[in-house]
Amino acid sequence: MKTVYVLNGPNLNLLGTREPAIYGAATLADVRTLCEQACKRHGLELVFHQSNHEGALVDWIHEAGQLHAQGQLAGLVFNAAAYTHTSVALLDAVKGTGVPLVELHISNVHARESFRHHSYLSAAARAVMCGFGVAGYGLAIDAVAQW
Length: 147
Ligand code: CA2
Description:
Largest sheet: 5 strands, parallel
Bound molecules: ligand CA2
Shape: globular
Distance between the termini: 14 Å
């Protein structure tokens, strides 16, 4: 059974508690449940994490990279949150491991402030999605299951 990594970056632990007009009412626990259901549909194992710390995210990408090297990773679905727009370290981790990446954003970042329009990760992503709300996580896993 292959594994899907779903990683979430800074402040996504606050989902459902503030800014519902942008991010909706679902909590991160709801997102995990949605991902579990999608993985179950496709016979995939789920590893789901959130951190406010860049280095923790780098370490989990490396962990996913080891599974990828063993042919056991279906893909990595990554909402790097604000680090999307700032982090060369996360880009290097994705490039260095070669993990098949879906870059995901809950909101349509292109309809927001201009500093959200640039992503360091997109250059290393196999797919980029935004604006589907938290439903995007399930859609991303549906796509990864076809890879
Ligand atoms: O739309 C997305 O998923 C983002 O990755 C979310 C990030 C933002 O910096 C990106 O530009 C787009 C922010 C995540 C913070 O999430 C919160 C949720 C509820 C309340 C406060 C923050």
